[in-house]
Amino acid sequence: MNNINYEYRTGIGTDIHRLIEGKPLKLGGILIPFEKGLLAHSDGDVALHAVIDAIAGAAGLGDIGMLFPDTDPQFKDIDSKELVLKVKEYIEHKNWEIVNVDVTITAEEPKLGQYKAQMKRCIASLLGIDFLDVNVKAKTNEGLGETGQGLAISAMAAVLLRRKIKRSL
């Protein structure tokens, strides 16, 4: 007789990038109207990068830098949505499924409240999970540090993964 149990793992991811003039701002997989964007090897989407790091960590895959090194030209200016899909494919090969994702984006500007639902929808769609299983929060740093001074945007994400384990009784 077989009994199906689940194994659960959590992961946490963070990212921060400097804001620069003349680059589009992408956060949570969507384009945000703003005069500055994020300096990075890829498109700089700190929210998706934090999600990737959280998923990779929970699945024991290392981190975003190991999976998609910034020294590799194939990732230059890549859309971070493509990287999310790649990490999702990696974990599915190991029979992991994403239970939920919680993302916090910290930025003084622009104000992100009106974009949170779009980001949730995009992240849920990329990960193949329900809209209600994704949460996006927007915070400021109350004027403190590089983020608080409007020089950078940062993000943190937490994820819960689950996979079935067959155990004989």
What is the strand and helix layout of this fold?
Blueprint: E1 2-21, E2 25-27, E3 30-32, E4 36-38, H1 46-59, H2 64-67, H3 80-93, E5 97-106, H4 116-127, E6 134-139, H5 145-148, E7 152-168
Parallel strand pairs: 5-6
Antiparallel strand pairs: 1-4, 1-7, 2-3, 5-7
Main attributes of the structure:
about 35% strand, 60s Ribosomal Protein L30, Chain: A, alpha+beta, 5 helices, two-stranded antiparallel sheet, about 170 residues, five-stranded mixed sheet, about 30% helix
Textual characterization of the structure:
This protein has 169 residues and is of the alpha+beta class. It contains 5 helices and 7 strands, in the order ββββαααβαβαβ. Strand 5, helix 4 (116-127) and strand 6 (134-139) form a beta-alpha-beta unit. The radius of gyration is 17 Å and the shape is globular. The N and C termini lie close together (6 Å). The mean pLDDT is 94.
Q: What's the architecture in CATH terms? A: 2-Layer Sandwich
Strand order of the largest sheet: 4-1-7-5-6
* CATH C-level class: Alpha Beta
Number of DSSP helical runs: 5
Q: Which percent band covers the strand fraction?
A: 35-45%
Quickly give the structural class: alpha+beta
Order of helices and strands: EEEEHHHEHEHE
CATH topology title: 60s Ribosomal Protein L30, Chain: A
Largest sheet properties = 5 strands, mixed
- The quaternary structure here is single chain
Name the overall outline.
Answer: globular
Distance between the termini: 6 Å
| Mean model confidence by pLDDT | 94
pLDDT < 50 stretches: none
Task: Specify Rg, calculated over alpha carbons.
Answer: 17 Å
